[in-house]
Design a protein that fits this description.
The protein has about 500 residues and is an all-alpha fold. It has one domain. The chain has a two-stranded antiparallel ribbon. Helix 4 runs antiparallel to helix 6. The termini are far apart.
Length: about 500
């Protein structure tokens, strides 16, 4: 069966009332999970995995998939309104989304985020149906050297993410990489920097750091501003919708972010996060007003949010076509398939077409449900900003504490949350950008593991790592990104002279 016939067959499966109900439950839970920090889509899927025993294999995967990409929608809500990223992949959204909310433009930010996610979901479904098998084979050509180069490329692009100077950005990258080494060394299992605390042997979890550096730090900034309450103004409907200029500035980033995120989703690792900050950096370079980024540029919300959801859709390609999970959430979906006795891999489209095509078509249905769920609630979300600031601060504190403690029921995570919050508050005073540290911390373990595996592969001849074509191409691209601003300044100075 060709792709078009497969999609039509998939819609007939997705529109069965049991599967529609499963899809709605999945995207609803995913939205809630995205809004509430700490739980995460993987934890939610693990908790609800036993509930799928009563469903068909297609229905089970439709519900769990809805939780996964639904959480990408929900994560942007608290990132924009409260500067508390519900998901780590929403960290970049806080840079401009929260600034837009502070300027009274939370409605357009939420609206564009929802539309961007919907467009990215549509692009992902089309890509999954028509070019998924071909692209998944390309993704399999990536070995440890390519993953290592991808992480290095991410760190180099990351250094140009914000308005911070290159030296300050490098300091934050170094601090994030240093924190990522806490715990057990991946090859030998030797404990590092644990200071005798057994719980630290598992390393420092990313969620407490992210919530501390954004949520707790923002609480301290609120306290410094004496928690002044905004005037209770009446919000009109037209003020919640993006203007014509907003749409003109948003649709190119949404298009680029959707395609970029989908392609990044084919690569193992935290691709949603990598796709968001790569999209942000690209939009800033292409923008006619790069000075507005970090101060409420709508492109800084549109591009990353589209890339976020696009990466979530792209991650399904290697899972459904090859039976290989490239992310923790994909591994949970693979577990559900194995529990229901579905044979994964290339023969899945032949032996279980109702599962493959049913899930593919249900993603479009689920993205439409998410759009219907989120857009009518924009006015409700925006009205929350007119609550007394001490109530908002209390909600932020509660979300941070409960979300952090829910990860592993450990007081160590609470201490990490508080310490990272105070550290981020001081770093902002010194004009350092905490977002760079958080993203470097996320990439650190993958970089270390892939580099050690690469050294083992080339028997210690580390220069051979950078002689592979894909690896060399990514490294050269990263160096160009680093050097481009200085070269452009020199060229303009020479031209002016």
């Amino acid at each position: 069966m060709n792709a078009l016939d497969g999609i039509l067959f998939g819609f007939s499966v997705a529109f069965e009332w049991r599967n529609l109900l499963a899809c709605f439950i999945g995207v609803l839970i995913g939205t809630v999970v995205g809004v509430l920090p700490g739980i995460g889509p993987v934890g939610a899927m693990a908790l609800l995995l036993p509930a799928t025993y009563a469903l068909t294999p297609a229905g089970a995967l439709i519900m769990l998939a809805g939780i996964y990409y639904g959480s990408m929608y929900g994560g942007s809500t608290t990132a924009i309104l409260l500067k508390v990223p519900g998901e780590v992949s929403s960290v970049v959204t806080t840079l401009d989304g929260y600034e837009m909310a502070q300027r009274g433009r939370a409605g357009p930010a939420l609206f564009v985020a929802a539309i961007g996610s919907f467009v990215a979901g549509t692009v992902g479904v089309v890509g999954l149906a028509f070019i998924g098998p071909l692209l998944s084979k390309v993704a399999l050509t990536f070995g440890p050297p390519e993953y290592c180069a991808l992480c290095l490329l991410g760190l180099m692009v990351l250094s140009r993410l914000t308005d911070s100077s290159l030296s300050r950005a490098f300091v934050m990258v170094a601090a994030g990489l240093a924190l990522s080494t806490v715990g057990m060394e991946p090859m030998s299992g030797t404990s590092r920097f644990t200071f005798g605390f057994l719980k630290m042997s598992q390393g420092i979890d990313l969620v407490p750091i992210a919530m501390g550096m954004f949520g707790v730090a923002e609480l301290l900034a609120m306290a410094e501003r004496e928690l002044k309450t905004q005037a209770p103004i009446r919000v009109r409907l037209r003020e919640l919708l993006p203007t014509k200029e907003d749409w003109q500035r948003s649709w190119p980033p949404i298009t680029r972010g959707s395609i970029m995120g989908f392609l990044f989703g084919l690569v193992p690792g935290p691709t949603a996060m990598i796709a968001t900050f790569t999209s942000y950096a690209l939009e800033r370079k292409l923008s006619r007003h790069p000075e507005q980024f970090g101060k409420g540029a709508i492109e800084g919300v549109a591009g990353p949010e589209a890339a976020n959801n696009g990466a979530a859709q792209g991650a399904f390609i290697p899972l459904l076509t090859l039976g290989i999970p490239f992310a923790p959430a994909s591994a949970m979906l693979l577990t559900a398939l194995l529990i229901h006795g579905v044979q994964t891999g290339p023969l899945m489209m032949v032996n279980n077409p109702e599962v493959f095509w049913g899930v593919v078509s249900s993603m479009y249905v689920g993205n439409f449900m998410l759009l219907v769920l989120n857009l009518p609630l924009i006015g409700v979300f925006v009205s929350l900003l007119r609550l007394p600031m001490y109530l908002i601060a209390s909600v932020v504190a509660l979300l941070c504490l409960v979300g952090t403690y829910a990860i592993s029921n450990s007081m160590l995570d609470i201490w990490v949350l508080l310490i990272s919050g105070v550290a981020a508050y001081l770093l902002r005073k010194l004009r350092f950008e905490p977002a760079i540290l958080v993203l470097a911390l996320a990439l650190g373990p993958i970089l270390e593991r892939s580099f050690l595996q690469s050294l083992y592969l080339v028997q210690g001849e580390w220069m051979e790592i950078f002689q592979r074509p894909i690896t060399a191409g990514m490294i050269i691209t990263g160096l160009v990104v680093l050097a481009a601003p200085a070269l452009l300044r020199q060229f303009r100075g020479s031209a002016a002279g």
